[in-house]
Specification:
Layout lengths: L9 E5 L7 H11 L3 E5 L9 H8 L13 H15 L3 E6 L5 H4 L9 H25 L2 E11 L13 H23 L2 E7 L5 H4 L4 H11 L7 H12 L10 E4 L10 H5 L3
Parallel strand pairs: 1-2, 1-3, 3-4, 4-5, 5-6
Bound molecules: 1,4-dihydronicotinamide adenine dinucleotide (NAI).
The site of 1,4-dihydronicotinamide adenine dinucleotide (NAI) has 27 residues, from helix 1, strand 4 and helix 7.
């Protein structure tokens, strides 16, 4: 396998909580392909300090805390990254999701509306805030690439995904809308990757996750894509090999999204 897909490229990785996180694996894979990184997460997520192990593993990357709902924090992050990199940079991974309603077991039909706003702000509007801040600061180079992680509940009902489904629909819409404006202005591309269910802290917070991941596995011709495979896909999207891909929601799910039913699943009803 090539090991220089991201040679000379620089970028910010949001959302590496622990070594299961999709962002953690993406940071490792991007570094292995030659990228220089700045890492960030919400200040509360840094209490355990695990991110500093990752920072050391990716060549001593700076860690700049930022709550992705705070434009002030995001501005400080973008400025800090530009200072570190010595100017504009090439890519951003948005790997952020959180719903207080899902966490606290609130049914979709009975959400707490303040929490609902938090779900949308943390999981979707944060992408808009990040892009708007980057645009104002001239932070991304031409042909730069932004990837945010999504889930197929944006298109189809998965009852236990609750208000996160609405957040993912909004996230995908922001990628499309901002992708137009950023593309016209600076040739920056913006995509969402719609990932298989994956064993991580955020994933396991969804009710019935173990059964669900098994169902998804049996409905996907290639099986579920894991976090490491997702990291590889994100690396290709940051690379120059995908320069004309933008404003897309890209399924990285082993074929789940185009499978009506599998023989394995139908066999359970025989
Ligand atoms: P994770 O729990 O490791 O990552 C979620 C991250 O969001 C954490 O690092 C957390 O600190 C960060 N975060 C939460 N609130 C934040 C805030 N206010 N500011 C900045 N960061 C904040 O879990 P995972 O699975 O790696 O999640 C990454 C992305 O992948 C999320 O968007 C998630 O919805 C998405 N995804 C996950 C799937 C799964 O089954 N695990 C499937 C499809 C998409």
């Amino acid at each position: 396998m090539a090991n220089n897909l991201l040679q000379g490229k620089k970028g910010i990785i949001f959302g590496a909580l622990n070594d299961q996180s999709i962002a953690w694996k993406t940071a490792l894979h991007a570094h292995a392909q030659g990228a220089e990184l700045v890492l960030t997460n919400a200040p509360v997520a840094m209490r355990m300090g695990e991110i500093h192990q990752l920072a050391a593993a990716v060549g001593g990357a700076p860690v700049i805390p930022a709550d992705a709902t705070s434009v002030e924090d995001l501005d400080a992050l973008i400025r800090g990254a530009m200072e570190h990199f010595g100017g504009p940079f090439d890519f951003i991974l948005h790997s952020i999701g959180m719903s207080p309603n899902v966490r606290k077991g609130k049914h979709y039909t009975d959400v707490n509306y303040e929490w609902y706003k938090t779900t949308l702000d943390v999981s979707a509007i944060s992408l808009h805030k990040t892009l708007a801040t980057a645009l104002k600061r001239g932070a991304l180079k031409e042909w730069g690439s932004v990837v945010a992680l999504s889930y197929i509940a944006a298109q189809r009902i998965f009852p236990d995904y609750g208000d996160m489904a609405d957040a993912k629909s909004l996230l995908e819409s922001v990628a499309r809308s901002f992708g137009y404006h950023y593309g016209v202005a600076h040739k920056v591309r913006i995509n969402t990757v719609s990932q298989s269910p994956t064993v991580t802290t955020a994933g396991s917070g969804v009710k019935g996750f173990d059964e669900f991941i098994a169902y998804s596995e049996s409905m996907s011709p290639l099986g579920n894509a894991d976090a490491a495979a997702c990291a590889d896909y994100c690396v290709t999207l940051f690379s120059d090999m995908t320069r004309y891909v933008t404003m897309q929601n890209l399924f990285h799910d082993g074929g789940f999204s185009n499978t009506g039913v599998s023989q394995e699943v139908i066999g359970k009803f025989a």
